[in-house]
Design goal:
Blueprint (H helix, E strand, L loop, with lengths): L21 E6 L4 E8 L18 H19 L7 E11 L12 E14 L5 E12 L2 E13 L1 H14 L34 E2 L5 E4 L19 H16 L3 E10 L10 E4 L9 E10 L2 E12 L2 H6 L11
Antiparallel strand pairs: 1-2, 2-4, 3-6, 3-9, 4-5, 5-6, 7-8, 8-10, 9-12, 10-11, 11-12
Length: 326
């Protein structure tokens, strides 16, 4: 497949070319497609870690699969560009962590996308799909994802958002609410404070860790373009960061399952809560998490994390490229 240039940024709903990870796409059958993805050696969000975790961030591949979903919808199912997409469920599993290792050049991955189910509206027009993705690197499956989403017209989206905001007593135009200071970057294994999306955790009434989501609309990746609600990728990243703040930096994401139940609004504080209890894990742990706002559960998730071997954390650096003579 061709990795020489990105696809049109509009196809993957991006404004910045630097945030486009897909480079080519081709149909295999009516239900199967291949999408080429180039994984940068460094990215402002996905490569920002204080303690290395063994290779590329699995969350990058969730975003790459999300972009691949748009590619399949627009290029191969003729979904108009003006549709608003609604993310409903996402699942991620690292199948082979060794294939996520950094190389001396950008990693080239081929996403094998399969349409598992189609959703049709009252007029029998295609209105959503459940898609499965296998991210293949060096001939083997590195990551598996599943995304369930649907799309509606701009008018339908406006009506839906108006009803949702009115039910919360909010005005039509979103406005940001005050938020507390960010947590310390090292607490969530970040170097840059810009990439910290939760406040300093505290204990809730039931004794579980709780933090406020930080929605910084100046973030170039999470807010690549204006939105009228908190993006799903921000919500799942907040869940991961609260889990890391609870466990410590020596862990990496291995699995993720998330269901988006409601729109999360800018105007109201959104809290991320985990239900981690029991003895401190040694090798692997599953952490239930949710995002709550105005008494509603807007996101329900479960994260699987595995401990990063000490030698991986010590030596996992991007290799220096070989010096070639002119």
């Amino acid at each position: 497949m061709d990795f020489s240039r990105t696809l049109d940024k509009a196809v993957v709903h991006r404004v910045a070319v630097a945030e486009v990870f897909t480079t080519a796409a081709e149909p295999v059958s009516a239900d199967e497609f291949r999408i080429a993805v180039q994984v940068p050696r460094h990215h402002g969000l996905y490569s920002d870690v204080r303690r290395p975790t063994g290779g590329h961030d699995p969350m990058f591949f969730l975003e790459a699969c999300r972009q691949s979903y748009y590619v399949v919808a627009h290029l191969f199912h003729d979904v108009p560009m003006g549709r608003n997409f609604i993310l409903r469920d996402v699942n991620l599993r690292v199948a082979d962590a060794d294939r996520l290792a950094f190389g001396e050049t950008p990693t080239e991955a081929v996403v094998h996308a399969t349409v598992k189910r189609r959703l049709r509206n009252r007029e029998r027009a295609l209105a959503g799909m459940l898609m499965a993705f296998q991210v293949v690197i060096d001939g083997g499956i590195a990551v598996e994802c599943e995304i369930n989403a649907s799309w509606i017209t701009a008018a339908e989206h406006e009506a839906l958002r108006t009803k949702s905001r009115e039910s919360l007593g909010l005005r039509p135009t979103p406005t940001a609410c005050p938020v507390p200071p960010r947590a310390a970057a090292e607490l969530v294994n970040r170097r840059s404070p810009l990439n910290v999306v939760i406040s300093e955790p505290r204990m809730d009434e039931e004794g579980g860790p709780l933090a406020v989501l930080i929605a910084d609309t100046t973030h170039p990746s999470l807010f690549d373009h204006p939105l009228d609600h908190l993006p799903g990728m921000l919500e799942v990243e907040a869940c991961r960061q609260l889990a890391l703040a609870t466990l410590g930096a020596g862990w990496r994401l291995d699995t993720l399952s998330a269901r988006f139940r409601e729109f999360a609004e800018f105007d109201l504080p959104a809290h991320c809560v985990t239900d981690f209890s029991g003895p401190r894990p040694v090798e692997a742990v599953r952490v239930p998490a949710k995002v709550v706002q105005a008494g509603r559960c807007v996101l329900e998730a479960q994260l699987g994390l595995v401990a990063v071997p000490a030698d991986s954390a010590e030596f996992d650096q991007v290799p220096m490229a070989l010096v070639a003579s002119a």
